[in-house]
């Protein structure tokens, strides 16, 4: 056992070895993983972190492709579409990382609650499922698999294919609202 007292950090916070807080978004993931007692939440930290990285990479690559395709074009609509990509990326990635940030913040303030962790993990998984549903609904016809290959899910897939592409936004928006409501309800 060490006689050393709490460490002084550059920010002036005192910390003990096992109670270190995180610094920013990247540090929130390992901090929340270590502090949570919920296996469901720990799995979400891993899955949600990988999903956030994959989504970020996809948006960066799409933006590079868009900029490359419009290089030399005049400003106006092209500048707006580039900015729109960034806004859409924020609206998609923020709800993926929100459960991790909320749980990390709650643990940092000393209010550990496994039920809260579990509920936010479930809402985070719901958001990831809603992104998949949005992609199924909004996929162009040439990229869709035949619904018959899904067996018992064929009627559900056909129903999703029959929806207007813009209605695919309803699932992620609803799931993001669910994350917020779960956070408020579990406070």
UniProtKB/TrEMBL annotation:
Residues of the signal peptide: none
Q: Does the keyword Membrane apply?
A: yes
**Record InterPro entries:** DUF8056
| Domain DUF8056 span(s) in chain numbering | 19-187
What are the record keywords, sorted?
A: Membrane, Transmembrane, Transmembrane helix
- Source domain of life: Archaea
Can you tell me where the transmembrane regions are?
A: 44-64, 84-104, 125-143, 163-182
Which segments show compositional bias classed as Polar residues?
A: 11-21
Carries keyword Iron? no
Write out the ranges of the annotated region (Disordered). 1-22
Protein name, per record: Putative membrane protein
Organism this protein belongs to: Halapricum desulfuricans
